[in-house]
Amino acid sequence: MPQTEAPARRTETARRTRLRWWTELPLILLVYGCYSAGRLLARGDVSTAVDHGLAILRVEKLVRLNAEHPLNRLFTREPWLGIPADFWYASLHYLVTPVLLVWLFRARTTHYRAARTWLMTSTFIGLIGFTLLPTCPPRLLSPDHGFVDTMAQYSSYGWWGGEASAPRGLGGMTNQYAAMPSLHVGWALWCGVILWRHGGTRTAKVAGVAYPLLTALVVMGTANHYLLDAVAGVAVMGVGMLLAPFVMRGADRAKALLTPGATAVTGDSGAAGSPLVSGGCQTSAGERIPRQRETRFGPGAEPGAVPEDAGDGDPAWGLPRPSEVESLGKAR
Question: Residue 203 — pLDDT band, cuts 50, 70, 90?
Answer without folding.
Answer: very high
